[in-house]
Design a protein that fits this description.
Oligomer: single chain
Strand content: 25-35%
CATH class of the largest domain: Alpha Beta
Mean pLDDT: 93
Radius of gyration: 18 Å
Order of helices and strands: EEEEEHEEEEHEEHHEEEHHH
Shape: globular
CATH superfamily of the largest domain: ATP-grasp fold, B domain
Number of helices: 7
Number of domains: 2
Number of strands: 14
């Protein structure tokens, strides 16, 4: 990477100033973290796959009229994105009981929920990203009522779309995390989708045997994380069958086109 002005560095991504005003370059790292950064590892090639998968999904959402921060993917690890003011909330959409949801409520993992639900978490590492209510959000001015309503409605639309997309390739969308940001254009403020959608931020299970194809393979020491992420990319049709991440990184695979 050439020398650029660092804007922000998180657990899995780095933001640099973009080439034009109002843009950033989002760089996907190979770092894997869990349990509020208590468990860490470097997994070679993870950032390449997350970049590609997230770009594919965000592009699909842009096409269906859900505005995202994505402008384009510029290379194997980077995207050109719109600069947004991140709303300090995580919107977690749940379709099937799993993870902390199951532990907190005593609902067996794998239980199909009566309907999709959304939980809100305050983005604060020191506090462990606590679960919060609409009242907490309102009194702390983390988002306005209109912003929260719009982001919640958009999250459910995204859920409907992703359920169908993943189901078509034999994957259950168990739950996933979204983030939103504010953007100003012509003195008008809009709320748009930001961050990423990838196996890092989703729980994805194989339809037939409920094999985990997401970061739970790292959280739970199941192994095979890269193989699972590659499987998701292949099923989505963005990584050719018979290829692997080493070929993708070296540019050997002709069907997986990387912009230089």
């Amino acid at each position: 990477m050439s020398r650029r002005k660092l804007v922000y560095e998180g657990k899995a991504k780095i933001l640099y100033e973009g080439p034009d005003r109002g843009t950033y370059i989002q760089y996907f790292k190979d770092d894997a973290t869990a349990f509020n950064n208590q468990k860490k590892a470097i997994i070679d090639g993870k950032g390449v796959l997350n970049n590609r998968i997230s770009e594919f999904l965000f592009s699909q959402l842009n096409e269906m009229g859900i505005e995202t921060h994505l402008i384009k993917r510029v290379n194997m690890r980077e995207q050109l994105i719109k600069a947004v003011e991140i709303i300090p909330l995580e919107f977690v959409v749940r379709n099937i009981a799993a993870g902390t949801f199951s532990k907190r409520l005593g609902i067996p993992e794998g239980t199909q929920l009566k309907r999709p639900i959304i939980e809100y978490y305050f983005k604060n590492d020191e506090l462990g990203d606590p679960l919060v209510t609409e009242e907490h959000i309102d009194i702390n001015n983390w988002a306005t009522i209109d912003e929260l309503s719009l982001a919640t409605e958009t999250s459910l639309r995204i859920n409907d779309f992703l359920i169908g997309l993943f189901r078509a390739v034999g994957i259950k969308l168990v739950d996933f995390k979204l983030e939103f940001g504010r953007i100003w254009k012509d003195d008008e403020k809009r709320v748009i989708l930001a961050d990423e959608i990838s196996p890092d931020t989703c729980r994805l299970w194989d339809v037939k045997d409920e094999r985990k194809l997401d970061k739970d393979r790292f959280r739970r020491d199941l192994g095979g994380l890269m193989e699972a992420y590659q499987e998701v990319a292949k099923r989505l049709g963005i990584m050719p069958e018979g290829s692997n991440i080493k070929e993708i990184k070296s540019g050997i695979s002709k069907n997986f086109k990387i912009k230089k």
